[in-house]
Amino acid sequence: MHIQNLSARPDLLEPALRLGDIGSEFMQHDPVAILTRARRLAERWPEFFLVVLDGDVPVARAVSVPLAFPTPEREHLPDHGWDGVIIWAVEDALDGRAPTTLSALDVQVAADRRGAGIAAVALNGLREQARESGLDRLVVPVRPTGKTRHPMLSMEEYLSRRREDGLSEDPWLRAHERLGASFVKVAPFAMTITGTLDQWHEWTGSALKPGPNAVEGGIAPVLASPEQNLGVTSRPMCGWSIP
């Protein structure tokens, strides 16, 4: 198994895109994420768009963006998590500011290859790419995969759930822990998504009731207000640093 980036192998973009997407339909409607559509990232930062190959077959992708962190005005990872690092990366690109850190955005493994440790290979590839690019660290805004089974549980309480060996109950968090990653903070406002009640019905297939709602694929409730015809969710993530 080996890793290529799109700077060296631009022909891998299309098969990499076919590996999957980031989750449920409503996750496609985060306005900040429009800045980082995969094709746009592949054009702007191809060296940080990695594809894991088993022989000649793409089995995973790992997408990331470079940014300046920490700086005097960026002492801590952003409360807006995934959205926040995207905004920082775009700001720095527009301002011509030299990056010092790499932030992961998306790791996808082919559906028939999940559970075989390939995601950890992809993460390690991002770490090596950061080092080769002269960047100080890799940071990861993590959406725990098992959190969809506990959408009403706070992220802090979910993170406290541990196995007998001391590792997280969550398989995606365990992958980071096994790479020596350090937990930094909970980002409470990562991926803030808003829509009308009709839009949420279209995205989820469910009619929202007033107040908090658990939805398929959600790691946090959607808060619905019929009076304002509005549903909103801020999907918490947890920030990790991988040296």
From TrEMBL:
Gene3D superfamilies tied to this protein: 3.40.630.30
UniProt cross-references to SUPFAM superfamilies, sorted A to Z: Acyl-CoA N-acyltransferases (Nat)
Q: What is this protein called?
A: N-acetyltransferase
